[in-house]
Design brief:
extended, two-stranded antiparallel ribbon, Tcp11, T-complex 11, 61% helix
Length: 524
């Protein structure tokens, strides 16, 4: 029979599973495992790559684009964003969209689907049955299955074409000889052969569905999942290639965008000008110990010329990157060159703010409770868990209310620990002092909070330069949050390093132009 199945040998891997090595000489075998990606050429000491300077647009009024140009630009930005996400986010994958059961989208979708499948049921129940829509569905199923095949699967493709010959199916339908159960059994067998192991149970369950309409509906649902698996497998396979070429690709696409939208670096220019002003002001006010807004000297990575008080491009860029950890989106516009990483950087900013509060609470508790209680087994971990749980998901604007609850919970933990260890309870004055000092951490100018924030930012600034990897010693008072801080530093450094590699030439061009303008103003 043309619909006889062959052995299960063309399965795709589970979502997120690496493809096992296979014999490349067999045209019907699964793809060979892609080789490990080559590491990109990193610049010396974290400098930007040695590329030709980009062509920055001249100052000009905003250009009005036609609708076609807008759509084309949006499509190019979308492609660039997806490629960037695949490279930067190793967990990136497509996922099934699940609307809320009571949402408008869910109700509309369910109503339309029910109307379609009810209509199909009526057509098949008619005498004689109307197979018009069934044939269309079988055609779509065939196309979906063929889309799951790789180019080398020519033999299997021919088998499917022969088994699901649409011309033959139409002739069978015209003569009332269409065998839907036999066709669906072949389809299920082919799906079982092609699907990832994680979908085996889904496909096997369909074999027990006897209603042909319900079975066709479920086949489409599972095929959608299989197509999503294939897309995610393709993303995983392409990632090494994209990592090798992502910098050149993003630069090329951004340059094309600049040609169409010459004002696409306005906010980036403002961001760098602000950073340059801060670095210059810091070097003038305190040449021997440069600080910027309470941030320590390592943030500038020693790139200020003391003789001329002229900041190097690297110091300005590092200051700009660190300013992202204090960004006020309601006041400042995000730099265009960082928009694709804005969500990631805002998550890092939120986590840094939370770690600042946690470390400050622990430092205050330590000074009030003393070393004896603070060194008791599990005490610090309990305070940390309580504080972290009460801050989870809260923006920094709600820290004041959260610290009210945190102070009460910390006091309760302290009281219970004192009781368990047989120590006298705190006096009312000491309890009030503990609660008051914790609640005062919400104040922006709180001394403890400022010190902790400065130390955290100092540590994170070291992740901006690959050359500082061996000097990332943890500042005093941050030991309880060491694990979280190292993870945040790694994420922050990875995002910044990729951004510097892609847009470094643009940043250098902007800063060079800005420096020339300042020199001209001084001469005048």
């Amino acid at each position: 029979s043309a619909r006889t199945l062959r052995g299960r040998r063309n399965r795709m891997p589970n979502p997120g599973e690496e493809t096992p090595a296979s014999d490349c000489s067999d045209p019907e075998s699964v793809p060979c495992r892609p080789r490990k990606a080559r590491q990109g050429q990193e610049s010396h000491d974290g400098d930007v790559p040695s590329l030709c300077p980009p062509q920055l647009p001249m100052s000009s009024p905003p250009r009005v684009l036609s609708m076609a140009e807008l759509l084309e630009t949006a499509q190019e930005v979308s492609k660039m964003t997806i490629a960037h996400e695949i490279v930067v986010n190793r967990d990136f994958k497509l996922q099934e969209v699940n609307f809320s059961p009571n949402s408008l989208e869910s109700r509309v979708k369910e109503t339309l689907h029910k109307a379609f499948w009810d209509s199909l049921k009526e057509q098949l129940s008619a005498s004689p049955p109307d197979y018009t829509h069934v044939i269309q569905l079988l055609q779509e199923i065939k196309e979906n299955i063929l889309s799951l095949l790789l180019p080398r699967h020519s033999r299997l493709r021919n088998q499917i074409e022969e088994a699901l010959d649409m011309e033959l199916i139409r002739q069978e339908a015209e003569h009332g000889a269409l065998d839907i159960p036999n066709l669906t059994m072949y389809i299920l067998g082919t799906m079982a052969m092609l699907c990832a192991p994680v979908r085996d149970e889904e496909v096997q369950r369909l074999r027990g569905v006897t209603d042909p309409v319900q079975l066709l509906r479920e086949i489409f649902r599972v095929l959608d999942l299989m197509k999503m698996d294939m897309v995610n497998f393709t993303i995983q396979s392409l990632r090494p290639h994209l990592q090798d070429h992502s910098i050149q690709y993003e630069q090329k696409k951004f340059q094309e965008l600049l040609v169409k939208l010459p004002n696409s670096l306005d906010h980036t220019t403002e961001w760098l000008h602000k950073a340059a002003a801060e670095v210059s002001a810091s070097s003038l006010s305190s040449p021997s110990h440069p600080e910027v807004h309470g941030s320590p000297a390592p943030l500038l990575l020693g790139a200020v010329s003391r003789s001329s008080a002229t900041a190097s491009p690297m110091s300005v860029l590092n200051q700009g990157y660190m300013n992202l950890l204090r960004w006020e989106p309601r006041i400042e516009k995000y730099p265009e060159t960082l928009l694709m990483d804005q969500v990631r950087l805002q998550e890092i900013q939120l986590q840094v703010n939370q770690l600042t509060i946690i470390a400050a609470v622990l430092l205050v508790s330590s000074s009030v409770c003393g070393s004896t209680l603070f060194s008791s087994p599990g005490f610090v971990d309990r305070l940390k868990r309580v504080t972290k749980a009460l801050l989870e998901g809260l923006p920094h604007t709600r820290f004041q209310a959260a610290l009210l609850d945190i102070s009460n919970q910390v006091h309760q933990e302290v009281s219970e620990s004192l009781l368990q260890l047989g120590y006298p309870a705190f006096t009312s004055d000491k309890s009030a002092s503990l609660k008051g000092q914790i609640r005062s951490i919400a104040e922006e100018d709180n001394a403890v909070r400022s010190v902790i924030e400065q130390r955290i930012h100092s540590f994170l600034s070291l992740h901006l330069s690959p050359s500082a990897q061996n000097s990332r010693s943890l500042p005093k008072g941050l030991a309880p949050i060491q694990e979280e801080l190292l993870e945040v530093g790694h994420r922050f450094g990875s995002v910044i390093h990729h951004n510097r590699q892609v847009y470094g030439p643009y940043y250098l061009a902007i800063l060079k132009k800005f420096s020339s303008q300042r020199q001209s103003q001084k001469q005048e």
